[in-house]
Amino acid sequence: MTTPFRMHTVVAALSLAGTMLLSTAHAQNIKIAMVIPTTGALTQYGDMVKEGATTAVELANAAGGINGKKIELVAVDDACEPKQGPVAANRVINAKIGYVVGPVCSGAAIAAAPIYNNEGVVVVTPSATSPGLTEGKNYHFIFRTIGRDDQQGPAAAKFIAEKVKPAKVAVLHDKQSYGQGIAASVRDDLKKAGINVALFEGINAGDSDYSAVITKLKSAGIDFVYYGGYHPEMGLLLRQSAEQGLKTRFMGPEGVGNPEVNAIAGPAVEGMLLTLPADFAANPKNAAIVKAFKDNKRDPSGAFQLSSYAAAQALIESIKAVGDNPAKVADHLHKSNIDTAIGNIGWDKKGDLKSFDFQVFQWHKNGSKSIAAK
């Protein structure tokens, strides 16, 4: 994120080997881990989650905490890397923390979920959208405060088919759990709608030159591109396509919705389409929450700030209701509806939200976004 993050006393923490912040508060405090990328290419998404969870905890502590106990946030870095997901999970468990906001990225979340579930740690991810996190897993301790890609993909495909109406589409992805999953969902729904998906292909995340795939897009006469993945690659695809004279519109999932994409793509970012959670910051019911964000120079309107706020809210309200007992908190979440910043939410037996609203936005070169009309 471009806005600075202020550490308040609610996040009493020290750095450990650059990867984990350990608490210095008293043992009687109730700890919630934030499993986020604080290193690597996707730290901006960690900042979004940190802003949301921190704001929720600050307001809760100001109102008396949980049954008189203060809530303490502990940040644990997984770099959004699948290999680091289990490492971060073990750090949480070794620190005897029973609750997690995160992990942020689907690949890391999928890799870590069996550990959290087996150890009875309640996880509420505000941003991991891959169906593979929960589908067919029979987890009891894993939840989300965001929709799944098989909800997001159809929203994107419907917009493309009904509003854009392209003649020939390319669907690209980054070969990773999140990117490939959402791309496949969009491809399948486009085909059902009778749209010609002429190309479905993976690119290598982290590469600096996508001229080969751009040449292929030009040769195939592609007039619309959907990319499943994150903002660094989307930014390069946009910039290099403009440089090579490929005049086509691009669309991506919420993972491309980051102001850093502007720095990479430059003016070519103008008009990029993307699916995002509804703009919960615009809901008048959230006026006090939005004020708390802005008072601390935080952005309430990013992709994951309010879903992260809601994740912390769900944990806090459940602990208030049933006590500091992760097993009871998981039971409570499964059977309850909770009023949060993203609405009154409830979960199915898999830990997925019963409903979630993804909307289509267009991104602008000044870093703002607006509802897309076509």
UniProtKB/TrEMBL annotation:
Keyword Transmembrane helix: no
InterPro entries noted in UniProt: Leu-bd, Leu_Ile_Val-bd, Peripla_BP_I
Keyword field: Amino-acid transport, Signal, Transport
Location of the Leucine-binding protein domain: 30-367
Entry-linked Pfam families: Peripla_BP_6
Domain of life: Bacteria
Signal peptide coordinates: 1-27
GO BP term, pick one: amino acid transport
CDD domains: PBP1_ABC_LIVBP-like (cd06342)
Sequence similarity: Belongs to the leucine-binding protein family.
PANTHER family to which the protein is assigned, alphabetical: LEU/ILE/VAL-BINDING ABC TRANSPORTER SUBUNIT, LEUCINE-SPECIFIC-BINDING PROTEIN
Protein name: Branched-chain amino acid transport system substrate-binding protein
